[in-house]
Amino acid sequence: MNINEFLIKRYRLSQEESILFLQEHEVLINGKKASQRENISKEDGLIIDGELIREQQLYSYYAYYKPRGIECTLNSAIKNNLADILPFEERLYPIGRLDKESEGLLILTNDGRLYKDIAQADRFKEKEYEVKVDSLLSEQALRHMEDGLVIKGRKTRPAAVQQTSPESFRIVLTQGINRQIRRMCYKLGYEVTELKRIRIAAVRLEKLEPGAYRKLSKEEIY
User: Fold this and answer.
1) Of 31, 63, 85, 177, which one's alpha carbon is 20 to 30 angstroms from that of 140?
2) By residue range, what is the domain housing residue 108?
3) Mean pLDDT for each 10-residue chunk of the chain (222 residues)?
4) Residues 135 and 196 placed together within one structural domain of the fold
5) Which residues are bridge partners to 103 per DSSP?
6) What is the pTM of this model?
């Protein structure tokens, strides 16, 4: 909402009174004087006439390359956990789990809104992977992955699949069944030897090396 709408609701003002309020009072959004119709979100800090109405919420967003052999957990009691190798002082949470033998992109953030937006299956957010298996791929197997397979008692959603070599392919999923790609390949008679996630929604792994990270741009976040 814009600042006028906020003032109208908070102080029960009319539209004209809210305009006068902004002219006659010191209203600061994130430390800067508010202008007419300036938008304000739940994350923005707000001070009115020196009174702290709401503290600014500062969020962090990173793309991180999880190395192979690391458990995707912040539980320090588990060996080779993610918390032990992350180079951040602040508490960040991973979006997009990867099993121990898989590698690639995680999004790290303390923003619960973004976690909900990406992690919930009903949002249909795309996740893209590069996969290598232990034998030659058949056209029939690739077609089955595209159409969907029954694993863990339910059929997987249709997926975009592109073969990249005789033994490897790329796949884009919109759901997150535990170990989904490995289970799909196993059902078709293959064992996954390499699995790397290269994209979550608009965020790409790009040229990150294992253990490296980068800040996300506003375009990637929103």
Assistant:
1) 177
2) 59-123+206-222
3) 89 91 92 88 87 86 96 92 90 90 95 80 85 97 96 92 98 91 97 97 94 92 76
4) yes
5) 196
6) 0.78
